[in-house]
Write the structure tokens for this entry.
Amino acid sequence: MRNLLLKFKSKDSPYGVTRETLKALADEMDVSETMVVHLAISRFAKEVLPAYEIDDGQLTVGDINRTRKAAEPMLPKGKVINTRSLL
């Protein structure tokens, strides 16, 4: 287990909080101060970090052609009976 030294600000701001604020949050939530810090970091991570792995970029022409070829047998066949447009 690794530890982290947390230095508190002298007043609350968007960039940090006082120890008193941390204590008040812990009391309000009925959890430890450590749990409050973990919850805050967890929420911040969900807000900032991507929810999916970064992909390899745009598909190549070959990728698109292979996808179209693989999908072709699954596409509907026959005469179009009726069509609608939202526009």
